[in-house]
Design goal:
Blueprint (H helix, E strand, L loop, with lengths): L9 E2 L5 E5 L2 H4 L7 H7 L22 H14 L4 E5 L2 H4 L8 H16 L3 E7 L5 H5 L9 H15 L3 E7 L15 H19 L6 E2 L1 E3 L2 E4 L5 H24 L1 E2 L7 E2 L10 E4 L3 E4 L31 H7 L7 E5 L7 H20 L4 E7 L17 E3 L6 E3 L1 H12 L1 E2 L1 H7 L17
Parallel strand pairs: 2-3, 2-14, 3-4, 4-5, 5-6, 7-11, 8-12, 11-13, 13-14
Antiparallel strand pairs: 1-17, 9-10, 15-16
Helix pairs in contact: 3-5, 7-8, 10-11, 11-12
This protein binds 5-hydroxymethyl-3,4-dihydroxypiperidine.
Length: about 450
């Protein structure tokens, strides 16, 4: 049982960095040269949801490309010390080899303003989206296509490096090709590591800021705790999505089931910190082709009006997973909760920050935390999951901080919190209306 009002006081290490995260396509709007934009226009995208109850195109998203000056003030006003954002390759190079200098100037102005407000900026160079032309060439699935990414980075890096305090080459590079797709995606996994390594070494030529790629750190859990097959497939999922990457970055050995191992000296040690995106645990059922099991019944809250696996709270997973990453400093580059009732976000935040503090007490060198997300935004196929500390009006784009946003500001100011802090922002624990379906889902 969790009682967030009785959480003991915690103080984070001196210099701990507090911030929030976003990604270009999810907030900017009109990202028309990207493959994602193109997909959103096609009828295929809506085939399972012809009435478009859930699915929607990104459209203007949060209109951040226009409102970025105000958003810098919003970030500063909420007390954030750091901000993780991504730069849209498809804006900088909308056509192959054609550079859009106005787009570069836009990002430089955004970075300059953030730095001028004392905000440390972490930049993600590839957050799921890229130019349509690159996609049509086969994107990262073709090893040879790395040269296009290299040319882009060589153009961009000297223009922005002086503003950047931390780098992610690729967002969630470990989940490309799916999380449980088995051995067929080994070549893509190898490629992703090599693209990461390429970015790592290139950045080193221009910047002294630490570099990593964000890792979607799933806490895998067997559906039937004592079932040998569920246990083994849980270990398999963990190996192919987590340990494969950790081992490769530590040793240069790319060891994947049913594939001849390779050694790549460029991959070995190609990181300065572990960049962890942590949300929840996933249940593994060895008897299902995709391994994906429904969660425990008591975890089946419907906090948004659609089935969505990221609603579960499993803060303990943060401790268990971070304990595996003791050899480099850690930044939590994403962690957050999607819910319509902001009170769930407050509970989520309090529990995960408590768990994070416990990981630090256990000796993990966690240097910072970026809440996902600064504002409600486009969740890749839909606007329904609301992750924001700040609400965004879908018509006027007006930003309104939520109670969780004010609580987070207070936590940042105090570099810690206690159950008593939480109580000032939450009069009672949240509950869902009885009419909501609590039944079977994801
Ligand atoms: O919105 C995404 C983000 O783009 C990558 N990490 C998970 C988030 C929530 O689903």
């Amino acid at each position: 049982m969790y009682d967030v009002f009785s959480l003991p006081p915690v103080t984070f290490p001196k210099g701990f960095l507090w911030g929030s995260a976003t990604a270009g396509h999810q907030i900017e709007g009109d990202n028309v040269h990207s493959q994602a934009w193109q997909n959103e226009q096609s009828p295929e995208f809506y085939k399972d949801d012809p009435e478009r109850r859930v699915r929607a195109p990104s459209g203007k998203a949060c209109d951040h490309y226009r409102l970025y000056r105000e958003d810098v003030e919003l970030i500063a006003g909420l007390g954030h010390q750091a901000y993780r954002m991504s730069i849209e390759w498809s804006r900088i190079e909308p056509d192959q080899g054609q550079w859009d200098h106005a787009a570069v100037a836009h990002y430089v102005d955004l970075l300059e303003r953030l730095v001028a407000r004392g905000i440390r900026v972490f930049v993600t160079l590839h957050h799921f989206t890229h130019p349509l032309w690159f996609d049509q060439l086969g994107a990262f699935a073709k090893a040879d296509n790395r040269r296009y990414f290299e040319r882009y980075l060589t153009f961009l890096l000297p223009k922005i490096s002086s503003y950047v305090s931390g780098w992610n080459v690729i967002n969630e590079f470990n989940q490309w090709g799916g999380l449980t797709a088995g051995v067929s995606i080994a070549p893509l996994k190898f490629n992703m590591l090599r693209i990461h390594a390429l970015g790592y070494h290139l950045i080193k030529q221009y910047s002294r800021a630490p570099v990593s790629s964000a890792h979607a750190f799933i806490h895998w859990f067997p559906r039937r705790f004592n079932d040998t097959l569920d246990q083994r497939m849980t270990a398999f999922a963990d190996f192919t999505t987590n340990e494969f990457f950790f081992h490769a970055l530590r040793t240069g050995e790319l060891v994947y089931p049913n594939v001849d191992a390779e050694y790549d000296p460029e991959v070995k040690g190609a990181l300065d910190f572990w960049s962890v995106n942590y949300y929840t645990r996933h249940m593994v059922d060895a008897r299902l082709a995709k391994l994906d099991a429904p969660r425990f019944r008591h975890k089946q809250l419907r906090m948004i009006p659609m089935p969505f696996y990221l609603e579960e709270m499993y803060p303990e997973g943060l401790i268990a997973n971070l304990e595996r990453l003791r050899d480099y400093p850690v930044y939590i580059t994403e962690n957050g909760c999607c819910c319509d009732d902001d009170r769930f976000r407050i509970v989520y935040l309090a529990l995960h920050l408590s768990a994070l503090h416990e990981a630090i007490e256990r000796g993990v060198e966690v240097r910072g935390y970026f809440y996902w997300s600064l504002m409600d935004n486009y969740e890749w196929t839909t606007f329904l999951p609301r992750f924001g500390l700040v609400a965004v009006d879908p018509h006027t784009y007006q930003r309104t901080p939520k109670p969780s946003g004010w609580l987070y500001r207070e936590i940042i100011g105090a570099n810690g919190f206690s159950g008593a802090t939480v109580r000032r922002f939450l009069s009672e624990l949240p509950t869902l209306p009885l009419s909501e379906p609590h039944g079977q889902r994801d």
